[in-house]
Amino acid sequence: MEEEKLQSTNTSEDKKGAVQKLVGGIAFTFFIAFIGYLIAFLPGFSYIGQLACAIFIAILYRQLFGYPERLRVGITFSSKKILRIAIVLYGLRLNINTVINDGAGLLLRDACIVIAAILLMIYLGKLVKANKNISLLLGVGTGVCGAAAIAAVAPIIKAKDEDAAIGVAIIALMGTVFSIMYTILRPILPFTEVEYGIWSGISLHELAHVALAAAPAGEEGLAIALLAKLGRVFLLIPLCFLFIYMMNRKKKASTKEQSTIPFPWFLVGFIVLSLIGTYVLDDLTSVSDSFMEFIYTLTTWLLTAAMVGLGLSVSLKDLKTKAMRPLIAMVTTSVIVSLLAYLLV
């Protein structure tokens, strides 16, 4: 009887300890996300943004203090589960009706950019002998929508957390550099405000990068830039299904077992919320702009916390060998994509 009570007490304590580690790990990722949020207010860092600041802090923390093993369960929860929730909520940013009706002409140019970015990155990655998964993730991030696209595709292609984190860090860095370069070049380019907006929208990496670069073009230029960017976000849906199909074929060809890649149900959530945001919330006058802004802010925080979880898995020892070559290919790809977009405007 006493042994049963002792076992019950131990089990209860184990569960309590597991919950504490889970909650502690999640809180830790949000704490670093908060530090990134504060740093983003400092002069110069506002261009980088909360997400990029947070992931760089997470990488730095790992190098200085090592991985916080006691909090691994919670950190993994952030990098896996919370990441999927963030992607689902990200669907509310995509107004499908607007893309199809007002941005149909931009979709073809968006598709050209997405295809070119992925194929270029894969080719250049092979040329410089870069990590295949990182090269593919960077191609997707460059072509579609930065960190969100990398986060959506990484589990489909079975990429390591570290590879996804490296991809996100490089995308954040290069996207910031290119968006600042765009604003510097704007006065000397032979573009109208709308044309400049299109160029920014179809070529820059993150939604935030597009907003940063297109803001000097005025309301009309910014609006068309965001519309062009939304077209690329829209293309994330068929792209993910294409990768699922390709990965399943590859797996069946390489093994005798007819196993398949687990279906990413978070992608269904992304589509459902896109439809709800487009055809339900958009028609409800009771849904205020402040509520939608709250949802967007929540999505940013969740995505940032998830990126912190990924950033903590990065070892700079591996980064030297794994990141430099993809970075070289990424810079070249981004330049070519910008030039191609310039010609498409």
Write a structural description.
This protein has 345 residues and is mainly alpha-helical. It has 16 helices and no strands. It has helices at residues 2-39, 50-65, 72-90, 96-102, 104-127, 132-143, 146-153, 161-185, 193-203, 207-214, 218-234, 236-254, 265-279, 289-311, 316-322, 324-344. The longest helix is centred in the first third of the chain and has 38 residues, at 2-39. It is globular and about 65 Å long. The N and C termini lie far apart (79 Å).
Q: Summary?
A:
It contains 16 helices and no strands.
The total count of helices amounts to 16
Low-confidence sequence ranges? none
| Element order: H for helix, E for strand | HHHHHHHHHHHHHHHH
- How would you characterize the largest beta sheet? none
Instruction: Indicate the structural class.
Output: mainly alpha
Amino- and carboxy-terminal Cα gap: 79 Å
E-strand count: 0
Share in helix: over 70%
Shape: globular
Rg, please? 21 Å
Average pLDDT taken over every residue:
85
Write the layout of secondary structure elements.
Blueprint: H1 2-39, H2 50-65, H3 72-90, H4 96-102, H5 104-127, H6 132-143, H7 146-153, H8 161-185, H9 193-203, H10 207-214, H11 218-234, H12 236-254, H13 265-279, H14 289-311, H15 316-322, H16 324-344
Helix pairs in contact: 1-2, 1-3, 1-14, 2-8, 2-14, 3-13, 3-14, 4-11, 5-6, 5-11, 5-16, 6-7, 6-8, 6-16, 7-8, 8-10, 8-16, 9-10, 9-11, 9-16, 10-11
